[in-house]
Structure formats: structure tokens, C-alpha cells
Amino acid sequence: MQGWVENTLLGDMRAPRLWPVNGETKTMKPILVVGGGPAGLAAAHVLANIGQPSVLVEKMDRLGGAPILSGYAKLVPSGLWAKDAIGGMVARVENDGLVTAKLNAKVKSLDGAQGAFVAMLSDGSKVECGSAILTTGFTHFDSINKPEWGFGTFPDVVTTTQVEQMISSGKGVRCPSDGRKPKRVAILLCVGSRDRQIGREWCSKICCTVSANIAMEIREEIPDCHVYIYYMDIRTYGHYETDYYWRSQEEFKVKYIKARIAEVTSDGKQLIVKGEDTLVKRPITIPFDLVVHAIGMDPNVDNMTLSAVFGVELHKHGFIARKDAYGVMGATSRPGVFVAGAAIGPETIDDSIAQANAAAMSALAASRGAVKQAAE
Q1: What is the rounded distance in angstroms from the CA atom of residue 235 to the CA atom of residue 205?
Q2: How many helices (DSSP H) and strands (DSSP E) are in the chain?
Q3: Contact of 86 with 38, CB cutoff 8 Å
Q4: 3 state DSSP class of 222
Q5: Quick one: DSSP state of residue 314?
Q6: What is the pLDDT of residues 80-129, one digit of tens each?
Q7: pLDDT tens per residue across span 326-373
Q8: Looking at CB atoms within 10 Å, which of 159, 265, 281, 317 has the fewest?
């Protein structure tokens, strides 16, 4: 340890190093990072900053994850455009000589043990790595699994992701059926979250805040549009309560209705949202031009395969199981394999980045045989 510290203090910290292992000096092996979204980009970057090479494997043809591939608009809570914030992270990694990006590739197998893994990729290449970090993210809930709420039946029933795409395109929020500006918009929360009937018991954590943000963006673009948010409970936790929940009401006049939605139908001219106002205990039937599903975060559709390839256990809801949060940060059931971000469960981008930084330090220690448990 002392030799490495002296070496980095006296030389270029970003230059790959030799590392003493059991009395022998060995060349530093790269760390395998799987998934090129915000968490994966953050892990590769922080490793490069301390001179540690990494191989970043991404199954799509470009880096950036959901914020880039799904065309997100302004991010919560920074207010920065996704193309700028996450795009900047992508450029930082792509221009770093210590990060090798493998696009259109998947890990087919991971053999060996901590400090001496061998990964085979779908492009036929082999990566000898000291440890691995799974930053494989999530899959958006498919609203087709909630047919009674009109998605797939009526063109003007859309998802929050589609509205984000409308905003980020610069064309503005419009009704897909005819391109008109909506005068009345309903945002339905918890679509694919907190719903045992469709096997989605978990809260997706960020949907309430994202919906409040979208509601404010609609009101800002179309001041005469009335926006209603239908909710079971509002979970804009921490500072989001003031910055999004209260601000959306007091400054942007967004209306919140505590309700249970039964169905979304149409009278041929407008969409009709039917349900029960659970505060006053009476039925409601309200017409809208545009209905937005605030879709939740599902486990990555590849998680069963990832579990088998990497030899890690899954949480009961299908996300990648984290060993604990008090010993080795980001540890999974397999020594030397770590996890961060929305691969663990619903997570914000900011917290995903923080988890990735922590997991990267755990992976670095593991690759050099220096992992210690909390009690050590």
C-alpha cells in the first residue's frame, strides 16, 4: 500500500500503476463496468480520475442510458437538460484514455474470482478484470399492462416519457391525435407502481416529483392549459416537497386530486377520466384533451440473464440484490461483483451517481485484494 501511495503522490495520478499483491508487483487490471447510463458513466469516470482503467460495456449503440436513449427533458432537481448534463458525462468518458467503451456488446460469461475474473463478451473479445460493477439500470413500465387506463386504445393517452420527448424535441406538448395544444391535461400517478394487481408493489420513488416538474413545464409552455394530477399519495420527499409539490400549486396553479381512477374512456371528442375523489367520497367524471401516465420503474428486463451470467442473487421484486449498505458499499452476493443505481431498485439520477462512486471504490479495493468489512 505504501509503495502505491508514494508512486501516485510523486507521479501522474492518472497513469496506470503497478500494484503490490501478496509480495508480488502486478500490472493493474481493468475494472469491468456493465451499463453505460449515469451510474456506469460516473463509475468509469471516478476510476479514471485515480488512474484506474476500466472497460465499459453497453448493449446499445451509444452511451447515456435512459436519459439519452429515452429523450428526457429537464432533470430533477438540477433543471439541466438531459442532453447537456448526461451528454457531458458521456463526452467526458469517451474522451478519457483510461476508459475503453464497448458498444453493442453484452457480457456472456464471467469466470474466475475476485481479483482474477475473465469476462467473455458477445463481440468475441475477452476482458481480464479485477472486479465488476453492474450499473444496468431499469426498464420503464409498459402502460399496455394497464389497459383500463386507455393507453394503446386512445392516441391521446401517453406516458411521462413521451411527454419528456415532446418537450426535449422543442416542438412542445401536443395531442398526438391531431397536433393541437391541449387545454386540459390529466397526469395519473402510480401507473405501474404500488399496484399489487399487476405485480408492482413497490413505489418508483421519483414519479411524483417528475410529474410535478412536467406539470410546471406544460403550464409554462401553455399558460391557459389546466393541469390536474391524480394521486393516491404524494411522495415528493426531502426538498422536493417545497421545490415541486408546493411550487407547482402556488406558482403554476397545478391542481391535485386525491383519487382512485377506475378507467379512461372517450366520448368521441375528449378523453374521460372516471374514478372516485377519495377525500370527499364521491364519483368523478372529468373530460381531458391529454392523459399522461406517470410510469414506474421496472427491473431491467435482462436481470434474469444478468443474475445467471454474473452469479448474483436477485431481490424478490426482480432487481439485483445488494448485500447490505453498512459493510462493503454496493456488494452483491458474489465477491468482487458490485452494483449501483437503478439496478438495485427505483432510484434518482443523483443518488445513482453517488452510489456508483461508492461502488467504484469498493470495486477498486476488491481488485487489489484490500476489501474490509464494516467490523474490520
Answers
A1: 7
A2: 10, 19
A3: yes
A4: coil
A5: B
A6: 999 999 999 999 999 999 999 999 999 999 999 999 999 999 999 999 99
A7: 889 999 999 999 999 999 999 999 999 999 999 999 999 999 886 655
A8: 281
